[in-house]
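Here is this case:
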Amino acid sequence: MATRSFPVQGAGLGLRRAHLGPLLIDIPDEIGFVEVAPENWLGAGGRLGHAFERIVERVPLVCHGLLLNLGGPDPIDIAFLQRLKPFLDRHQVRCYGDHMTFCAEAGQLYELLPMPFTQEAVTHMAGRIRLVQDVLERRIAVENASYYCALAHELTELEFITGVLAEADCELLLDVNNVYVNSQNHGGDPLAFLRALPGERIAYAHIAGHLRTDEGLVIDTHGAPVIDPVWQLLEAAYAHFGVFPTLLERDENIPALDEVLAEVRLIRELQQKHQGGAAALAPTRRRA
């Protein structure tokens, strides 16, 4: 990948309530940026809202939503976008996006459900992404999703993803763990899949742990440490595309901050290995 600018730099961490206290005291140097689901923080006040405001004043912020319903049949919630836009602007959010899924039909389902891999679905989702981008007046980054059943296979998963990105002219939030999870559940070579993605559209990436059930199904839980094959896939992505910002997700079984920071440091070490030095990975602090 040719040298290009990214919305953030280095290694990031999903901002969780369990870690607000320590991060209020100090933002460790390992953390180059943090991420939240904006639905959880729009209008937040009191002690939690104050802590959030203080932390994101000192470290770059990206937002990854849960309820945009980019693939669903219900109309895009314009009222929500009109509330979201000033939140993104006020907090100088470097990148915003959601998932290549649907999560509502005649009301929220509160699950990220898979799309059929068809040209009709590509066109449907791409048009909705373009609408969101027009309302927000910014490009968004959409995440390749894990899925556990396929609704239709007119296209491959790869063709579906690349089709949406091209038709919507949006960016990719590359979830490395989801590439691995889908390869385990549905077959295929995760490295070949990853290398075929349009690297020029990567805004940043996610890496996370997962659960393997007794029956062999791999579930994207974000509730365990990252395993070696996923680290290896991330390193292969850096070798192929060049280094891009990467965020550790931990949403369940959340350990102490020191434990998750150990994984954030591993991200930085891989970035340094493939970028040739630590200077370019220094966190970009916004203001004191």
